Structure formats: C-alpha cells, structure tokens
Amino acid sequence: MLNLERLRTLDALARHGSVSGAADGLHVTTSAVSQQMAKLEREVGQPLLAKNGRGVRLTDAGRLLADHAARIISQVEQAQADVEAQRGCAVGELRIGAFPTAMRGLLPRALSALRTGHPDLRVRVREQEPEESMAAVVRGDLDMALAVDWHNKRMPVPAELTRTHLLDDSVDIAVPAGHRLADRPSISLAEFADDEWISWNEGQFCHEWLVFTLRGTGMEPRVAHIAEEHHTQLAFVEAGLGVCVAPKLGRGPVPAGVRMLPVCDVVRRHVYAVWRADADRRPSIRAAVDALRTTAAEVQHA
C-alpha cells in the first residue's frame, strides 16, 4: 500500500522541481525528502528519480505517480473538509500567509476574535508577499492567504483558488514636510513628474504597479531607493530623499516630518482572502473568513 506522506513528498518534488525546494515546502530536511523517496521507490519497485546534473528529475514512472499523487492529495483534503463540515467545529490548525500591512492592520484583531470564538483552532501566520502566499496555498503549504492588488492592475488568481473581497484600502502620497506640494489638500500623480520615488523591491507586484501607474500619467518613474517596509519608506521621505505611496491599512503613526496627501483621482488597493476551492466547506476556513470580514468592516469604517 502506498504511503500518503511519501506521496506528499513526491508531489512536493514535482511542484518545486528540486529536493531542496520540496524540503522547504514541506518544512523538513533534504535528507528526510531523500529517505522518503527511497522508501517510495522500494514500495513501487522502480526508480522514480534520476540524476540531472547536480539535481534530480522525475522518471516517467515518477511523473505518472506524481500525477496520481496530486489527485489523491486533493481527494484527501476534500475528505478532511467534508469530515470537518460534518462535525461543524473549527478545530485543528489553520495556516495563513499575509502581506505586511495586513499583518499589522487586519490580522491581529481577526485572530483575537478567532481565538475567543474558536479556542480549539490553532492559527499559524506567515508574512509573505501575495504572489508567494497564493502559490503556497495552491501547493498546500498554506490554507489561506491575504492578498492585495490595485484598482487599475489586478492580480491573477489561480483557478484552484476561491477568493472573497475584504476591503478597499485608499492610499495617499507621502511627501517631506518641506515639499512644494505639502500644503495642498489633494494632488494628482502627474504633479510628481520631477520627484524621486521610494518603492518596493523590483519584481514585486506593488513595484510593478507603481511603474505601470506613473507611466500611465505620461512620466517615466525615477525610483531612487528601494525599501520593503512602509515605515522604512516613510523614514526616507522624512529625510527628504523622495516621495512614496502610503496605504492607510496598518499605517501607524506618521513621522513628524512627513505630510500625507490624498490623490484627487483616488488610488486604492483591493484586499482579499483566498483559499483552495476544495477546502471551501472547512469550518476553520469559514470561521476565518467571517472574522476577517468583520474586522475589515470595522477597519474600513474606523
């Protein structure tokens, strides 16, 4: 009889493409992955992996069994969801990935409500960018992700996932207190044609959005500095090193030397939760969605 955990290891190898990637996804050591695969090869009586340079690749038998493993794992997850739904209680473990501002501005209050309402549910949270967390949900490494995209640039959601809208987060432009526009009640993005910007890491969805949006106003973005955290970006703004986009969700205290300027053509982000469609009936998923919606409504109207 095939061992389910060994099939999970094979599935992870097929999805990640390497032993180290599978180990990271499964949160085990590379030697544990190798041992599981060696046992699985003995069970099926033929090699599933072949050397490929310094790495490995799946053999024909490996690819065939990996296809079956993906379907088996999905069916097991569906069975677990159905059993949880039959029991009607949110119990066990729920793994959530969230982008930084949602980690600060949305999750703490929602998790507190979950702990109060569902004391037997253990929630583990990981801070990740939306692209990474959604891929982790597809792989089964996470149960849910909080993601974000923009009013003029939507992020594609994989077909395997279900999503629900939580809130719209409006953003301002943060400028130094001595900036020429600092006293304006509102501004247009086109007015920053001569300014340098502080942005997110290149390749991240939000950085791509900023470049896309500024080019849409007819300007070529002048990105002078890269900083991952909004608080770091605001510190650079306060020092007079540029301007940046400042979402309201999870913003916290604004430095004394920074002014927040609303954008007259309204720039906003869409915040939503995603989870695997085959886990839709899990009470833990439904409980988390309810808590997030309630918290999002409170944040939206605060």
Q: Total strand count, please?
A: 11
The radius of gyration over CA amounts to 23 Å
Mean model confidence by pLDDT:
90
Query: pLDDT below 50 for ≥5 consecutive residues: which ranges?
Result: none
Q: Please report the distance between the alpha carbons of the first and last residues.
A: 56 Å
Element pattern in H and E? HHHEEHEHHEHEEEHEHEEEH
Biggest beta-sheet profile: 7 strands, mixed
What helical percentage do the residues reach?
40-55%
Percent of residues in β-strands: 15-25%
Morphology: globular
* Number of discrete helical segments: 10
Structural class: alpha/beta
Please describe what this structure looks like:
- It is built from ten helices and eleven strands.
- 43% of the residues lie in helices and 23% in strands.
- It is globular and about 75 Å long.
- Strands 3, 4, 5, 6, 9, 10 and 11 form a seven-stranded mixed beta sheet that branches. The chain has a two-stranded antiparallel sheet with strand order 1-2.
- The mean pLDDT is 90.
- Helix 1 crosses helix 2 (19-26), helix 1 (4-16) packs across helix 3 (30-44) and helix 2 (19-26) crosses helix 3.
- A hairpin with a 2-residue loop joins strand 1 (49-52) and strand 2.
- By secondary structure, the protein is α/β, with parallel strands linked by helices.
- It has helices spanning 4-16, 19-26, 30-44, 60-87, 100-105, 107-117, 130-139, 205-216, 230-238, 283-300, and strands at 49-52, 55-58, 92-98, 121-127, 144-150, 161-176, 197-199, 223-226, 244-247, 258-262, 268-276.
